[in-house]
Amino acid sequence: MEEILNQILSEMKDLKQDMTVLKQDITVLKQDIIVLKEGQERIEAKVDNLSSELHMHSFR
After folding, report:
1. 8-state DSSP, 60
2. What's the N-to-C CA distance of the chain in angstroms?
3. What whole-number distance in Å separates Cα of residue 22 and Cα of residue 19?
4. In the chain, how long is the greatest CA-to-CA distance?
């Protein structure tokens, strides 16, 4: 019985470690998403600028 309880405790510790790693991974992913969104905004701004330039040049 004690062996089973020790095994359960060991598995719970492993699960707790896994949860900690998952939380860290989620934090990193959230940061990556922020970086990607910022990059997307910069790309969209450049596309808008290029579109405006093309539009201006087409009317010359």
Report:
1. -
2. 88
3. 5
4. 88
Entry pTM: 0.69
Instruction: Output the six-digit token pair for 22.
Output: 């998952």
Tens digit of each residue's pLDDT (9 = 90 or more) over 15-55: 999 999 999 999 999 999 999 999 999 999 999 999 999 98
Residue with tokens 């808008």: 48
Length of the chain: 60
**Triad 30, 12, 22: Cα angle to 5°:** 10
Backbone angles phi and psi of 5, in degrees to 5:
-65, -40
DSSP string, 2-59: HHHHHHHHHHHHHHHHHHHHHHHHHHHHHHHHHHHHHHHHHHHHHHHHHHHHHHHHHT
